[in-house]
Amino acid sequence: MCKWYSQWKLVNGKFTLMFPTKNLEHKMLQVGYKNIIGVDEVGYGALAGPVVVCALMIDWKRVKKNDALLKLGVRDSKQLTAAERERIALALRNDPRVTFQIASASPATIDRINILLAAQGAMRRAVSRMMNHELRIKLDKKSNSIVLVDGNRLIPKLKLPQRTIIGGDQKVFTIACASIIAKVCRDQIMIRYAKTYPQYGFAKHKGYGTKEHFAWLTTIGPSLIHRRSFTLTSKLL
Questions:
Q1: How far apart are CA 139 and CA 167, in angstroms?
Q2: Cα separation of 37 and 49, whole Å?
Q3: Residue 8 has pLDDT above 60, yes or no
Q4: What does the pLDDT look like over 157-173, one tens digit per residue?
Q5: FRET pair for 147, CA 20 to 30 Å: which of 4, 40, 57, 158?
Q6: Which whole-number Å values give the CA distances from 88 to 72, 75, 163, 237, in the listed order?
Q7: For residues 113-139, average pLDDT
């Protein structure tokens, strides 16, 4: 089943867009976990710029049944407009019940160790920063914390229980929140890069492989923030 189709469900004869729920978080709370951390990355497949990760946790004990937090319209960041993402990200940043940390890996790091290891390293740093600096919780297997990771790969060398969820940004509320903040953060980075490298149109496509982006790459070649290890980029060197 394709990712787009999986976000729709046939309800009463009509296809309805499904929003991520807090069901998994509540199950984790019921079995004894106190800190439930959602992790997602943005920029994995881009040709230029960093991969950005957000690790995010919500204090669910302070969230009511019909809380405004649950009515923000949170869902997979790719299914939101830029304005919607920015609105939701701002609300999450200003909510005292939401804790998060950002980490990233540069194009140079991606080229040196590959995109998978770079993304996993950023995930590990984001989780570790939050646990060490925000919550002062010791990183060990006895901690009442669990990490919910979008995708099908665990974060290596992370001394915390983990669970992977394929399509987690579509299904799990905490992961969807993390995806939105990561996306807004990375978009802002690419907009800043657009001022340094205006000829590539980074403010529009954010470093992904659009027709416009390929046209400029073919004409003038890659910039310093292009990932030279990516096949499509390396062919233009």
A1: 26
A2: 25
A3: no
A4: 998 999 999 999 999 99
A5: 4
A6: 6, 10, 25, 39
A7: 83
Q: Say whether 85 sits in a helix, a strand or coil.
A: helix
- CA diameter of the chain: 57
Please give the Cα distance from 61 to 139 (Å, whole number).
22
Query: pLDDT for 192-212, tens place per residue?
Result: 999 999 999 999 999 999 999
The tokens of 184 are what? Answer: 């807004």
Q: How many residues does the chain have?
A: 237
C-alpha span between 95 and 117 (Å, rounded): 32
User: DSSP string covering 189-211, please?
Assistant: HHHHHHHHSGGG-HHHHTTS--H
CB atoms within 10 A of CB 60: 19
The position carrying tokens 């907009």 is: 191
CB atoms within 10 A of CB 54: 32
Residues in CB range of 135: below 8 A, 6 or more apart: 35, 99
| Residue 128 CB partners (closer than 8 Å, separation 6+) | 139, 158
Amino acid letter, 147: V
| Chain segment 217-233, per-residue pLDDT in tens | 989 999 999 999 985 65
For the CA atoms of 175, 150, 104, 230, what is the dihedral angle to 10 degrees? -140
pTM of the model: 0.88
Q: What is the predicted pLDDT for the residue at 7? A: 52
